[in-house]
Amino acid sequence: MKIVFMxxxxxxxxxxxxxxxxGYEIPLVVTQPDRRxxxxxxxxxxxxxxxxxxxxxxxxxxxxxxxxxxxxKLRDIAPDMIVVxxxxxxxxxxxxxxxxxxxxxxxxxxxxxxxxxxxxxSAILEGLDETGVTIMRMDExxxxxxxxxxxxxxxxxxxxxxxxxLLAVSGADLLAMTIPSIADGTASFKRQNSDEATYSHLIxxxxxFTDFKESAEQIERKIRAYADWPSCYTYIDGGLQLKLYKAExxxxxxxxxxxxxxxxxxxxxxxxxxxEGSLRILEQQLQGKKRMSAGxxxxxxxxxxxxxxxxEEDK
Length: 315
Description:
By secondary structure, this protein is α/β, with parallel strands linked by helices. The protein folds into two domains: 3-200, Formyl transferase, N-terminal domain (Rossmann fold, 3-Layer(aba) Sandwich); 205-314, Methionyl-tRNA Fmet Formyltransferase, Chain A, domain 2. Helices cover 26% and strands 25% of the residues. The strands form four sheets. Strands 5-2-1-6-7-9-10 form a seven-stranded mixed beta sheet. Strands 12, 13, 14, 15, 16 and 17 form a six-stranded antiparallel beta sheet that branches. The chain is elongated, with a radius of gyration of 22 Å.
């Protein structure tokens, strides 16, 4: 079988690696353009690096829609199937119609729940105990196509890095099990119930900010959901950014201290009052410093009850 693969991050690379190991012919890999990272250095996507390591041809369109050169190339390749995983672009109808077995998407949620750009982060933010992966046949909508197969994964207490790794492996295995049934005509296609659909939005850097005017439980979820990017962050000492990486939520009602106020410290942590409950901070990174435990942080940065973090607009 001849498969064109489209994807970008590590989540997608797991599926591409599985297809390579399964021995499928992959005449083309399509991924997002290279981006500039720290010190203006060009950063290749995990999918591109994997493709190059395996001698696969790579295309990196700014937009597939309207890219007649790429669309013509796809028609010339005439793939049996196009497999998409976290690619970051909707495919136009003219591309969806090219492969005889259709365009298949590896989506990181249990559809129709959490359609959209950030299903794994949203599952953590919503406090779900489990999420999963759905293999679906793509149509012109945003994750609205018919479902083919699903796998559930327990995500309790995990951050986005752990969840992404779990779902990447589970999704790759599910993909490998599902493709043969599509090829031999035994796959079952189930229409989604749009009345049950929910959506996850495109994450922006500003989503990571907290002034602690939320419940401790919600901020702890935010810390786990945004551990990879953009991080959950606040400000201290006249405008230095402080990224939070590990914390424990202490349930309770609004305390005597205003949100963002340090209410207690010990050798290993410091506790910050929230709109509801308190947050015990265990690991963080101060701007310009390394990520470290709260204990190490406080040995070089004195914090006392009554000290306060503040909103970006207060800088």
